[in-house]
Amino acid sequence: MTVLRTALRVEAIAWRRSTVQRLATPLLIALVPVASIGLTTLARSGAVGGAGAAKLADYAAGDPATTHLVAAGQILSVAVLMAGGFAVAATFGQPLADGRAGAYFGLTTPRGTLAFARGLVVLGWAAACVAGAVAVTVGASAAVAATTDAPFGPAAWAAAGRALAAGLLAAGLALPFAAVATATRSPLATVGALIGVVGLTQVVVLVGAGAWFPYAVPSLWTGTGGPDAAADVGGAAVAITAAVAPVGAALVVVQWRRLTDV
Fold this sequence. Notes:
mainly alpha, transmembrane helix
């Protein structure tokens, strides 16, 4: 445990100084609330017509606070996966691509422990960003609700809870891409795989199997595909989606234990 704590401390310092973290953190925490409230405001302004109005129709009904948080959950389900994918591409793929990982063979800390610590740091960062984005959205929505006749009630809190859960699920879904980064030793290949999975998710949803495909579950669960699609996502599908994170972490630990030619 002492070795793991040391590895976590070192990896946290390195991640805090990384460019990806410095760019992605404010984008997730600030832009998600802005986009959520902005979409709702735009949908109710009457300024959008035609196809745009149809796409925003779901944000034009219901009390504003609940709609803000529903939108936040939908945005987080995609944004956190993308941010997490870029994060593991940088933290796992880049050292292998530029040769810096060769130094790991001279450390007393096992490489598997380093990989586990690195994954935990990225996952913890993503979870903190999700919590921050939801908290900011709740605060802003409560402020908006105070100026209207629609109070910040139980429905809004339920939407906030679902947004938080969906964002955490999406964060966990990024961990398997650490295994992709390790196998390919390329951050670009990892990002390509991430984009490929996002595209595949769209196809799976179109053919009607999204409710059981982990990479579609967070988005559908928050209502991106409509209320019927959200209702199709059951507890078993959510549990399977949550299991992706530990499986991905275990896989990358095994890979790093077996690294021999860096």
